[in-house]
Automatic annotation (TrEMBL):
GO MF annotation terms: ATP binding; nicotinamide-nucleotide adenylyltransferase activity
A GO cellular component entry from the record: cytoplasm
Family, as annotated: Belongs to the archaeal NMN adenylyltransferase family.
CDD domains in alphabetical order: NMNAT_Archaea
Name of the protein in question: Nicotinamide-nucleotide adenylyltransferase
Source organism superkingdom: Archaea
Pfam families named in the record: CTP_transf_like (PF01467)
Gene3D superfamilies: HUPs
E.C. designation(s): 2.7.7.1
GO terms, biological process: NAD+ biosynthetic process
Length: 180
């Protein structure tokens, strides 16, 4: 059986990793959808699709599951989004999400959806991690170790600090427009 789990993964953190660990007990293969794939270099979406693929690919080696990372760009039209996802992904039997819009769209399209508990959501959320990266607080303890390695390799902290400066200067283009 093959599952599908989409997120923006900006960055991929221990909450996502725990979810993949649990999914790995239910399916043999998992497609990781890299959502909002066209977005990068903003405060909300600092990392490119390719950089996020590195983060997930290096992290999921922890688990006994075959994974495929597939970039999925956003569309203006929610009503055809599931077809768009299916057109880009290997076929899957079940979708995993805790995002209410994603759950609704898959259910309306007749796709089985499974939710998971939220793990330590007080700190394990992308927004909190990005805030910590900008302010210089600890974020490394909240991501799998290979994710910190990728962020170091690409100069990710310097990047998010610079773009957050630019964003607050009024040049941001995507803040708050994420359809999910
Ligand atoms: N701590 C967590 N525990 C379980 N699921 C999570 C956790 N954080 C995120 N998720 C789920 O993982 C999927 C992808 O989430 P996403 O990439 O948007 O991360 P996020 O932490 O919610 O980020 P952001 O704060 O940037 O929106 C969503 O279904 C989301 O609900
Ligand atoms: N119309 C659309 O393009 C559409 C609809 C629903 C979800 N999405 C995307 O799916 C992903 C969902 O991931 P999150 O749960 O991390 O928000 C996001 O990248 C979001 O932009 C896109």
């Amino acid at each position: 059986m093959r599952g599908f789990y989409i997120g923006r993964f900006q960055p991929y953190h221990n909450g996502h990793h725990q979810m993949v660990k649990e999914i790995a007990t239910e399916v043999d293969e998992l497609v990781l959808g890299i959502g909002s794939a066209g977005d990068s270099h903003s405060t909300r979406n600092p990392f490119t699709a390719g950089e996020r693929i590195m983060m997930v690919t290096k992290s999921v080696v922890d688990f006994d599951i075959t994974t495929y990372a597939v970039p999925i760009e956003d569309l203006e039209r929610n009503s055809v989004w599931v077809s768009h996802v299916q057109s880009m992904s290997p076929a899957f039997d079940v979708a995993y999400s805790n995002n209410p819009l994603v759950i609704q769209l898959f259910k309306e399209a007749g796709v089985e959806v499974r939710q998971s508990p939220m793990f330590n959501r007080g700190v394990l959320q992308g927004t909190e991690l990005r805030d910590r990266m900008i302010s210089g607080e600890d974020w490394r303890s909240l991501v799998p170790e290979p994710v910190a390695g990728v962020i170091d390799e690409i100069g990710g902290i310097e990047r998010i600090q610079r773009v957050s400066d630019t964003d607050s200067g009024g040049y941001d283009t995507d803040e708050g427009t994420d359809p999910a």
